[in-house]
Every structure is written in C-alpha cells, then in structure tokens.
Amino acid sequence: MEVVWLMLLLAIYSGLVLLATSTNISTRPAVVNIGCVFSFDSLVGKVAKVAINAAVADVNSNPLILGGTKLKHTMHDTNYSGFLGFVEALKFMETGTVAIIGPQSSVTAHVISHISKELKVPLLSFSATDPTLCSLQYPYFVMTAHSDLFQMGAIAEIIDHYGWREVVAIYTDDDHGRNGIDALADKLAERRCRLSYKVPLNPELNQNDITDALVNVLQAESRVIVVHVPVSSGLMVFKVAHNLGMMESGYVWIATNWLATILETSFPLSSETASVIQGVLTLRMYTQDSKLKRNMFSRWRNLTTQESPDSHFGLNTYGMYAYDTVWLLAHAINEFLNQGRNISFTHDSRLKELGGNLHLDSLSIFDQGEMLLQNILQVNMTGVSGPFSLTSGRYLRHPAYEVLNVIGNGYRSIGYWANYSGLSAVPPVSKQKLNDSTAKQKLLDVIWPGQTMETPRGWVFPNNGRFLRVGVPKRVSYTEFVDQIEGTDLFKGYCIDVFTAALSLLPYPVPYKFIAYGDGINNPSCTDIIQLMTAGEFDAAVGDIAIVTNRTKMADFTQPYIESGLVVVAAVKKQTSDALAFLKPFTGTMWCVTGLFFLVVGAVVWILEHRINNDFRGPPKRQVVTTLWFSFSTMFFAHRETTVSTLGRLVLIVWLFVVLIVNSSYTASLTSILTVQHLASPIKGIDDLIKSNDPIGYQHGSFAENYLTQELGIKPHRLKPYNSPEEFAKALKDGPGSGGVAAIVDERSYIELFLSTRCEFAIVGQEFTKSGWGFAFPKDSPLAVDMSTAILKLSENGELQRIHNEWLMGSACSSQTTMLSVDRLELRSFWGLFAICGSACCLALIVYFIQMLRQYYRHYPDESSEPSSGRSLRSSRIQTFLSFADEREDEVKVRSKRRQMERACVISNGEDESIGKSSNTDIGESSNTDVGEGTSNRNVGSTGSSTQ
C-alpha cells in the first residue's frame, strides 16, 4: 500500500514538473536572431566562421542551454571593407537581431558602436582589441578577447627584462594601430623606457611605402622594433626588412599577436615565409589546457573539412574566443528568458523624421537591450579557452599571453606573461603569487635574429653620416682639464683624454665633433651646456662637469672619472712653538678635569687607606702633603706609598690605566707640535665662513655659487667671482680688509692644482660636499651606460691613473701637507675613561663606608643603643664616630675586645652578690638590722677599696 501511495505521489510531482516546463517553453520564443559580421576570407575570419557555426550547432543541440529556443545566426561578409561592415551591421538592425558578434576590425567597431548604443544592440567582438573600445563611450561594445592594453604591458615588461630603453614602433595609421602604440608608450614610460621613433604605415600597405619607412628605421639608434600591424600585411614588413639586411644579428623584432595567429593557422610555415621571420618574438593569447580545448582540437579537422573541403587551416586563439563568444551569448539569452523577459523592438521616431531614400526608419531599438547587456556582463562560464567571464571594466578576467620564439619552420614557447604575476617561465595560474621556484626564471633562452643566443644590445650608433655633437666648455683657467687648441676645433686636456680613451673601448665606432661653448673671457657655466644639450643643441657634454642634483634632473651622467667636492682655501702662516707650547696638547677643560681627578683619586685612596696604612697617618699637615704627593706622583708612576686595602688597590689600578692613556696621548700630541711644521689660519672651515660676514671667492661658472646661496644660505653680496688662479691668489693675499676675500670655495680638483705651486695657502676644514665629474648625455641615452662601462675598464687597467698623472701631477708644494695644525685634545675624547674611574671611586667609597658602619655598631654597641636625648647627645655620637673613623682599625679591635672582657667580669661579680643576699634572708628577721649594718659596712669598704 505504501508503495502505491509513493508511486502516486511521484506521478503527481512529474506531472507538475512537466506542466511547469511546458508553460515556461510556451513563453519562450522559438528562435532568437543573432548576427555575425567579419571578413570570411581573412585568416581570422575563416577560422571564426567555422568556430561560430560549430558553436551555434552545439548550443542548439543542447536542450539544457536555451530550453527549446534555438539560435538563428546570420553571417555577413565585410570583404575587408570598413564601409561594408558598417552597412552589413545596419542590415541586422532591421531584422530583430538581439546581438551582433563582430565586427572583426577595430576601426569598424568604433563606428558601429555608436549605432549599437543608440539602438541598444550589444556588440560582442572576439578580434577587435583596441584598448579604447572598452571605454565608457561605448557601453554596448563587449570585447570577448584580451585587450591590446595587456598585450602592450607584456611587451613593455619583456623590453624592461632585457634592459633595453628605447624602442621603435611600426604600426598602421588607424584607430587600432595608433591606440595600441599609445598604450605601449604608456607601459614603457612606467618602466623608464620610451618610444624613440614611431613609424606609421598607410593602412593600404604596399612594398614601396614599407621600404621607405624601414630605411628610416635603419638610420635610427634603437634596434628594438615592435611591429603592430594587421594579420594580412604583417609578413610584408618582414620580407622588406629581410631584403634590407635588418633581420641580422643585433636586431630585436617583437610582433604583436598577429604573427602568432599566422603561426597557428598556417602551421607548418613554408620555407620562404619562415626564412624572413627567424628569431622574431611574438605573443599569443594564453588559453589553459583543458578537456574542452583538446576535444575542440580533435574535431577541428572534421569541422574545417565540412566548411571548406579543399583547404585545411589550424585553429587559432581567435577561433577559440569566437566559439566561446557564442556560448557566452547563449548563456546570457537563457538567463534573460528565465527572468520572464520578452523580446521587442521599437522604431525610433527621430529616424522617421529624416525620411529620404535611405530607409533609416526601418531601424529599430531593442527595448530590452540594456537588460541583455547586463546578463552578458554577468555570465561566468568555462569555455574552450578556459574560465570565461568579464570584469567590471568589461575586460576578460586574468589576461595572459604566451611568448613565442620563431625557430626554423615553427616556434618555441619561451615563457608567459600575466597581469597578476608578470613574466615567468611556467604557465600562469589564477592567484596573486607563484609558489613554484621555477617561476623566478623570467624567460627561457632565445635564439635571436642572425641565429645568435647572445642578447642584443638593443641599439647602435646610427650610421647615417651624422657626428655626435659634443659640447665642451671653453675654459680660460685650469686649462689642464680642458683647453682648446688655438685656431682649431680640437681640444686637449685631462677630460678630453679620458673621453677619447673611453670611446676607444666601445664595441662600435662613434664619430664625434667637439663644439666649443663660451666667450673665451669668462669660464662658461656647465649647467648652461647641459641645458643646451637638453634643448637639442648638443648630443653630449664633455669637460669638468660636476654631477650635482639639479644637473641630474636634466641629463644622464656616466660613472664619475674623478672624485671632487667643495673645499675652503684660506691664507695660512707657519705656526712656531712658544714657551707655553707644552700646554697646547690639551684644552683648558681637559687640563682642569685631569687635575681635579688627580686630587679626587688621592683623596679617595687616603680615605680607603687611612685606618690601616701607616703611610697615610700622622699629623694633619703630613697627611695633606702625603696625599698630594701620592696623587701627582702617579702621573709618572713614581708613588712610593703602598696601598694595603683591596678597595684602594682597585681604585689605583683603574686610575693608573687612565694615567697611562692620558700620558701617551699628551706625549704624542706634544711631539707633533714640537717636531712637525704646521699651518695656522683664523678660518677653520665652512662653518666659520657661514657665521662671519667676510667676502668669499668662487670660480666663475662653478656650481659653488648656487650651493653657497641656496643650500647654505650665504648672502649673494658676499660672493665674488674670479676667473684664474692668479686672481684667487691676489684676493687671498689682500684679505677682506683690502678688497680681497677671507677664503675661496671651489672644487678640490681645481684647488689641488692651485696649491701645487702656492705654499702660502691651504685647505682648511673638511671637504663639505661629495661629488664627481662625469660626461653628460640626454636622458635615457644608451651611450651613458656604455661609456660608464668603458670608464670602469679604464680604472681597472690603470689607464685612468696614467692620464691623471700625465696632466695633474703636482710640483713644488705637492708633497707639503696642506692640513692645519692638529686639533687639541678635548675632554670628549677621554670622558669615557674619566667616567670609569669616577665610578670605581664612588663604588669603593660606598663599600668602604658600609664596612665601617658595621664595625662601628659592632664595637660601640652602647653608643648605638642609647636613646636620643637632645642635640648634645647627637653631637657626642658624631664625635664618637669621627674619632672611630680616625683610629687605626687594629686599636679599635683591641680596645673593643678588652671592654668585652671587663663587661664579662662585671656580670660575674653581680651574680655572686645576688647569691649572698638570698642566704642572709633565710637566717631570721631578728638580726636584720645588724646584717644591714654589716652589709652597709661591707659596701663602704668595698667602695673604698675600689677607689683605692
């Protein structure tokens, strides 16, 4: 019975389900119209046509997708024409089409997107990848492939990975080409790289136009070339480049995913095609390996045979995205119908008013277009290309690319790129960080054009007959560094020799031409030369150019080839010894503290030794003399008094160590003062100049002027410019009182030459800036890097030092020290020693007084236990303690022992008397009087005898 009821309930439930299903199906349309617009004969279009037909057939054969509704797709061939694509799209707007798959071209998509926005018909394109199509301007355009924005990010990271800084871009001059290259320029700028040269090509490409463009590229410096052109014309660019010899060693060619499309679709390549693209890198949209993908590849040959029996072509990524686009649209339509939506269209009244023969009034608005669009954006599925869903920005999630290297008749995968993990040698995974240790390797080895595995430098000096214009300051002083040979355009000097020696080490020839800058009267400003280089007047700047902050903002500098920095030069005089020269090693504070510690240590040792050492006892006068003698005799380790106490010896050991260090320092400093000839100047360094109001000299054209005024805050009216060493010397000799200067501030390299023949001047204080001289080049110039490497080689092989010795070797005063007198020894150099000694003294005194108090309370218990009865008693106790402290320790111990023995005797006599009194009381009370008298007499006698 229970089984019957159970079967009855199941039948009722099945009937209700069938009723609900039939009701739902009855409300759904039997057919939903979609359109497809692309070029059937293009490499992308013929693959997409097969994929879309297969996808529609798969959707319609699966009842779980649309619940009985069928997709009806209509394909229109644009025949490579943007105009026909526009017209064909308009036709779909007349036939109740809910969505359009396409267009294939980004250029056409820009136009049709405006119409789809007005008529609310979603566009789903699997091949229009222009980054600007995802903007808010085109709300009804849905990109179902990866945007070129991510592809350009991958290319920029590859360029940065190999250390290249300048790139040449070849592209078609249309919306797709321009916007893609603009995205590349932005991504390169994020990595401090740049597009040095853009080569736009006519969309209607021909061989002559390509040849003219590549000839210009041949004359450029950069050898890293990115090609962003349509699939139909890309190989023509490489054929022309091959004929011009631009596919040889030293070049880097990176093609966007158009080349990967050719490799996938036309594999294997013909030998003629493969020969012109050897070593090229290209990117392919990455699709994860899955069962769906493998099944699609296994059935692809049958699908292509059905579509085109006479030809076979491979499945490319665009075909997979076209297949998934149909499924994406099917899922969205299914969700749209499940929500109970109806499909309806309304004619636009504005189009009716136009009239005319164009029949624009036949175009209709899809009333539920916005709802369908939202369902499209919310679909989350897995297709043959992998996880397939859109972000809030209407991009496919987890964009990734595979980097391919063309080798032989095929290609090899050398790595991957994903926007969430960057470059990696392993396939990307959908997580933020890769845990696999192999992911640390960016890319595998590449075989570059010219069949070489050595990574190209990425640039060459252009072989176009143009010389490198090198700006050189026309100096009027210190010509040892830079000097123009009179009557010629040639230069000589230390800086020039270093520059030419570095150029000779470059692996390529660099023709150059020196161009003098300056009026020949005043030394020119090197900052002005760099500004002219930034403006394009020069290609480089060579000379005594200091690398300072404001200049590094305008140009790139090489490795410094000589160290330099600002120093202060002043007039000095020889310092002679006088009668009080022995006091100069220490400052006044040091002398006072040292003397004080001699007295303190002597007093501490006297306190610690006074009670146990006869050497520190006697009359007060003798004790004072002994203490002073002991204190100061330790300076020479000649003290004759011995220390007995442990604490005294501890203090003395620490003090003798301090005396040893102080004596050694004093001796060394005094020896230097008396035996070495020193120079003296009232100016001790830059701090003295800042505090004073005296005039300061500097070299005309030097960066010292800006540094002194802007960084140190010195008033400009205090600064005086000079052009020659002779003017320096005269200004210093005259001094501030006679129209001269108190000091000169200039770079050390100049000052060393200046002082080599002028012994009456010297550097005072320390070098207060650290910098160097380098050669300047425009920002991001690769010459700066190669020249830096050459300078390092010159330093390693000793050539740099040889050039220095040849031009800058000093004479006359070169061996004389230019340092001022040695600084006097100050307390801060010894405060640690004095602190240790003071701590030892304090610790010893604390321990000593604790021990003495314990002895006092042990040997004078009566005084310590007596109650306080006034100031006199307290004073008496203090006097007793002081007397105790002044006595010898052994005498105190003897007296204390004697007093203890006497106290013991008194206690014994008291006990005998108490026993006698107890016996008399027992005899009888009648004789109490006599006994009392006798007792009194005994006491008197006892007292008397005691007195005697």
Automatic annotation (TrEMBL):
Keywords: Disulfide bond, Glycoprotein, Ion channel, Ion transport, Ligand-gated ion channel, Membrane, Receptor, Signal, Transmembrane, Transmembrane helix, Transport. Disulfide bonds join C759-C813. It is a multi-pass membrane protein. GO terms for cellular component: membrane. Its main location: membrane. The chain crosses the membrane at residues 588-608, 647-666, 829-850. Residues 1-22 form the signal peptide. It holds the Pfam family Lig_chan-Glu_bd. Residues 895-948 are annotated as: Disordered. Residues 467-810 form the Ionotropic glutamate receptor C-terminal domain. GO terms for biological process: cellular response to oxygen-containing compound; response to wounding; signal transduction. It is found in: Membrane. Belongs to the glutamate-gated ion channel (TC 1.A.10.1) family. Glutamate-gated receptor that probably acts as non-selective cation channel. This is Glutamate receptor. It comes from Kalanchoe fedtschenkoi (Lavender scallops).
